[in-house]
Design a protein that fits this description.
Layout (H helix, E strand, L loop, with lengths): L1 H11 L20 E4 L5 E4 L9 E5 L6 H15 L2 E4 L9 H6 L7 H6 L2 E2 L3 H16 L7 E6 L1 H10 L8 E5 L6 E2 L7 E7 L7 H14 L3 E7 L7 H16 L3
Parallel strand pairs: 3-4, 3-6, 5-8, 6-7, 7-9, 9-10
Antiparallel strand pairs: 1-2, 2-4
Length: 253
């Protein structure tokens, strides 16, 4: 099923436009509501949302552009009736990124074994807190929460989203950059990954040669779509991944 979907996606990906530069603040679409949540998180509730809408959690890249994420997914939210929530990292990027880049201490067996395995962090707590704060204001469908991210946000989405202790319906990663092992992977989780072959920011070869094999080794059901482009989210990959992720989520209803 995943290989068939990948073949279909490759056929539609050639030269789709990418997401633009981040604006300073989100701008609500007609009749939609912007909600300010704790720790600088933002949510967007479209006018098309049902009484118990699904949720797309959007993790920004380096630079904490949560407003950018909301702005660029407002149209998808309106068309699909999904609620968007964009948490922010505490620092310039998600805390698992510098931790994963740090070399393990060769003098510590525990650090060698567990130093680069992700379980939880202060930023993952911020993500979960944003979801809980949203749920207090909107009666969301908890069986249909999809975690997604771009760039460093994609790397963090994979680290956090593969954990067995978190029940995300699917995980989407547009152009991740580092392979981070999960301390307790959830086997069978739906994962969608794309990356541009000419990406000058985060290397395509890391995603194809390290990240995807790690996900597969951890038991994820991975759909990987390479495309001829740079560090971007092609519109066709965005649409196709959301189609697939939320179709999979509906199976839990």
């Amino acid at each position: 099923m995943a290989m068939l979907l990948a073949a279909v996606l490759v056929a539609i990906l050639p030269s789709a436009p990418s997401i633009a530069s981040p604006p300073a603040v989100p701008s609500a679409a007609p009749d939609g509501r912007i909600l300010r949540l704790p720790d600088e998180a933002i949510a967007y509730v479209p006018a098309s949302a049902s009484a118990h809408p699904p949720v797309l959690v959007l993790l920004h890249g380096a630079g904490r552009g949560s407003g950018w994420m909301i702005r660029n997914f407002e149209g998808e939210a309106e068309r699909r009736g999904i609620v968007l929530v964009a948490p922010t990292s505490r620092g310039p990027t998600w805390d698992a990124i510098p931790a994963a880049m740090r070399a393990a201490n060769p003098q510590s067996v525990l650090d060698e074994k567990l130093g680069h395995r992700f379980s939880r962090s202060r930023d993952s707590d911020r993500v979960e807190a944003a979801i809980e704060a949203l749920a207090k204001q909107v009666s969301v469908d908890r069986a249909r929460i999809v975690l997604a991210g771009f760039s460093d946000g994609a790397t963090f989405a994979l680290a956090m989203g593969l954990s067995r202790r978190r029940d995300f319906a699917a995980v989407i990663a547009w152009s991740p950059g580092i392979a981070i092992e999960s301390a307790s992977p959830a086997r069978g989780r739906l994962v969608y990954v794309s990356h541009g072959r000419a990406d000058p920011t985060l290397r395509f070869e890391v995603t194809s040669g390290e990240i995807v094999p790690l996900l597969e080794n951890e038991g994820a059901e991975v759909t990987f779509v390479p495309f001829d482009g740079v560090h971007e989210v092609p519109a066709s990959a965005r649409k196709a991944f959301l189609d697939a992720a939320f179709a999979g989520a509906r199976q839990h209803d």
